[in-house]
Amino acid sequence: MSTQTRGTARVYHVILRSAGRKPLFTDNCDRSVFVGLVKRYFVDHGIGLAAWCLLDDSVHLLLCAENSRIREALDEVTTIYVGYYTRRTGRKGALFQRRFPTEPVTTEGQLREAVRNIHLKPYNCGISRGVPYRWSSYETYLSARPPQAVGWALGVFGGRKSFLVYHHIESAGASLDTPALLRSDRGADDYDRRMISATSSATLAA
Prior knowledge:
The protein is an alpha+beta fold and 206 residues long. Helices cover 44% and strands 13% of the residues. It has seven helices and four strands, in the order E-H-E-E-H-E-H-H-H-H-H.
């Protein structure tokens, strides 16, 4: 089934990477500022935030909107954050890579896989001891009143119980329903491919 939400809105997995793979955040204050900007400007542009996580040198976002609105919002968020980060740290030069990889997520199977992959990244990168992680949307899926985009994605999983089961299955193999961005052969995406290989066979068995 298609993941189109309403009107011409679509679902996209977007990755913001740092220039030179350097850290994007020095501490939790930086992370809090960035998340606040994302939530504020995405609301202003009518963009649904279905899943997200912050890593040291990248940000993963699962967004519901027209692609043009996503790019406008990302330009605003990154420009404001770079100004803040420069003033705080004195760093000069580019902070983000100029190109933001954006991949459409077109089926419900891809949506479930993308949400899980985003939530498992901190654990598989070794920056979190478990799947719950402060700087991701995982806990939002377990809240009593999740935002609209999260509630919609949660419905694709079939509810919280299925969401939890899907996130905690240990498996191996290669998914046939994983967006191309997550299967990229580029060296920068080696981690993504390893994680998918380790976690995606549940999609084949479903």
